[in-house]
Amino acid sequence: MTDTRIYIGLLHYPILGKDGNIIGTSITNLDIHDLSRTAMTYGIDKVFMITPFDLQEELLNKIINHWTTGTGAKQNPLRANALSLVKVKKNIDEVIENIQSADGSMPLTIATAARNIEGNMSFRSAREMIRETPKPVFILFGTGWGIAKEIIKKADIILEPITGKTDYNHLSVRAASAIIIDRLLGKA
Known about the structure:
Number of domains: 1
Radius of gyration: 16 Å
Largest sheet: 6 strands, parallel
CATH class: Alpha Beta
Shape: globular
């Protein structure tokens, strides 16, 4: 792997609901912990939790602070290190600005989807692009029933969906993100 800086984000709005309408999804404590631990394992620079909802931002910051500076940090320093990677942002534009400010260039943005979207890219091709790009890389994951089309359209790359041995394809974002990150950034 090159020394490319990698960022991941978990989007909570705008997200598709089961009926295809735009919704906001809830923050899940397990997502925060598991995405940050995966990020720490794979050398990812930051994990952005993206929500425009003030109460969710407040909850996120309480959880992060508990594990990075509060009682949780004393009880589990390894978890504190992982959760120190998490930052809360209101929207994708704030994330892109943050990455551009930190790295001096616009990131290569990779959107993930559990459904087939025309023009999507294989994991192998995306992995090669990540290795070759001089830009920072931002990998965006969705919640609910997927990332809204207007956000998908902004991505430079849309990844192919994860496929298993059956037609069932509704992994938790924790499981899907770990699989995708390993396919894109793992040693194999």
